[in-house]
């Protein structure tokens, strides 16, 4: 491993570890986002607390946390596409296990989406469309995210043939996203998952 690659890995983790939604909730409303809603430090839970005005830019920044390592750090380090994907995965780990907040974090959906955007924008468009359709039909962000993740490998194969050699890597990324949603899957099966809507009362952490 080159010195540049080692620095890129550290930078990718630290960038991913920036707890954007946590900081915004603290600055704007003075609350710990981990104590309300799902307890997740992601844009969806932030929406429950502060609305679209803050959730959209936070979601975009979280996506950039995945896109920047693959599109900027990777070329700077002179690594292969596989190495760039490794940097993106490191950013996702940083987002989910942030060193800045006792290794708490979100589920890594937006940051994972950023990786796809940076490496396979065509497949990103397909999965984004799937995410939007499932969300509009069901009202569940978790179900939309899980479905989009499961569709990703097929989208890579069909829409982004130049990335077919990496389909197993993207499949692994999809598995990670689904794994981090295991609590949501249990609530979906039990019929206790909260639908995505504005203006609802914010439940205590662990119930959203």
Give the count of helical stretches.
10
**Poorly predicted regions:** 198-208
Rg (CA only)? 17 Å
Helix content: over 70%
How much strand?
under 5%
How would you characterize the largest beta sheet? Answer: none
Shape: globular
Class from secondary-structure proportions: mainly alpha
Reading the helices and strands in chain order gives HHHHHHHHHH
Oligomeric nature of the chains: single chain
Distance between the termini: 42 Å
Provide a descriptive summary of the structure in words.
- The chain is an all-alpha fold and 208 residues long.
- It has ten helices and no strands.
- Helix 8 packs antiparallel against helix 9.
- The radius of gyration is 17 Å and the shape is globular.
What is the secondary structure topology, with strand pairs?
Blueprint: H1 3-17, H2 20-29, H3 43-50, H4 52-77, H5 81-96, H6 109-119, H7 121-138, H8 141-159, H9 167-180, H10 182-190
Helix pairs in contact: 1-4, 1-5, 2-3, 3-4, 4-5, 4-6, 5-6, 6-7, 7-8, 8-9
């Amino acid at each position: 491993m080159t010195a540049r690659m080692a620095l890129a890995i550290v930078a990718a983790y630290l960038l991913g570890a920036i707890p954007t939604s946590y900081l915004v909730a603290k600055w704007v409303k003075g609350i710990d986002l981990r104590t309300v809603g799902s307890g997740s430090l992601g844009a969806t839970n932030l929406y429950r607390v502060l609305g679209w005005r803050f959730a959209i830019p936070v979601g975009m920044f979280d996506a950039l946390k995945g896109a920047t390592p693959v599109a900027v750090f990777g070329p700077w380090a002179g690594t292969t596409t596989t190495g760039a994907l490794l940097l993106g995965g490191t950013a996702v780990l940083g987002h989910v296990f942030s060193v800045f907040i006792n290794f708490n974090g979100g589920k890594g959906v937006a940051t994972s989406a950023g990786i796809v955007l940076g490496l396979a924008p065509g497949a990103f468009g397909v999965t984004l469309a799937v995410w939007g359709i499932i969300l509009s039909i069901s009202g569940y962000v978790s179900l939309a995210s899980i479905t989009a993740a499961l569709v990703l490998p097929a989208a890579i194969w069909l829409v982004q043939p130049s990335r077919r050699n990496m389909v197993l890597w993207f499949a692994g990324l999809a598995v990670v996203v689904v794994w981090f949603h295991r609590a949501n899957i249990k609530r979906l099966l039990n019929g206790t998952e909260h639908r995505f809507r504005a203006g609802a009362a914010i439940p205590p952490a662990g119930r959203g």
